[in-house]
Amino acid sequence: MVQIQKIMMLGEQLCLDFINAVGWHPNESMCVEYLTSYSVFIQWCQKTEIINTEQASFFLEESRKRSVEADEVIKRVIELRKSVFRILLAVIAKDTPNEQDIDLLNSEIARVLPFSKLQYTDNQFIWKRAKETKNLDWMLSIIVNDIIELLTSNKLERLKVCDDDNCGWIFLDMSKNKSRRWCSMQDCGNRAKARRHYYNKKISKNEETE
Ligand SMILES: [Zn+2]
Q1: How many A from CA of 153 to the centre of ligand 1?
Q2: Which end of the chain has fewer CB atoms < 10 Å from its terminal CB, N or C?
């Protein structure tokens, strides 16, 4: 089985880690897809603890029997991620999101809504996901719910995209003074530091020769 290459958990929210399951997102020629198949998506869901080991084995086995259905689910997963990525970029740029992207998200909401139900227990309402399901897209309900939660929250004002033009990873800047610029200091932050160092050296060298 193909193993998932990379899991980035730096978005500070599950749905952002889902959106970031792709490398060099804004740059089409460099773009690296992490969710290359349904089975890889299931590995991602298991590692991010959306589903447990038992559920993962169930979905993997079912997907082998229902491969056409599984292929359709992974296509929907990628389309959903693309649409939500564009919506979030629009939010960050304070632009109006594309209506088609909102329509696609709404159609996914309609599809996965039946996987949850409203329950009244201990004097309160709870929005509960059905545990037992044979639907190969069941885990999408968790991701979609988390997207709705983010989009309707005031956390949006903390939403940022990494300062590296080619990175495209999106995160919530939870720092006190809202100063986070990079997806991670180990990654883009370090590269920017190295670049700054290189240019500074170059400038001071030029100054010396002048
Ligand atoms: Zn980055």
Answers
A1: 24
A2: C
Query: 20: CA distance to ligand 1 center in Å?
Result: 10
Distance (Å, rounded) from C-alpha 161 to C-alpha 86? Answer: 12
Ligand 1 centre from 165 Cα, in Å? 8
pLDDT of residue 26: 84
- Ligand 1 centroid distance, CA of 90 (Å): 18
pTM over 0.85: yes
178 CA → ligand 1 middle, Å: 16
Query: Mean pLDDT over residues 100-105, rounded?
Result: 98
Q: How far apart are the CA of 161 and the centre of ligand 1, in A?
A: 8
Contact between residue 4 and residue 47 where contact means Cβ atoms under 8 Å apart: yes
Superfamily of domain 14-180: Jann2411-like domain (1.10.3300.10)
The CA angle 55-60-63, to the nearest 5 degrees, is 120
Rounded Cα distance, 66 and 55, in Å: 16
Look over the chain and give the mean of its residue pLDDT values, rounded to a whole number: 91
For residue 189, the CA-to-ligand 1 centroid distance in Å is 7
In three-state secondary structure terms, 135 is coil
Find the helix packing angle between 67-92 and 140-151, rounded to 10°.
10
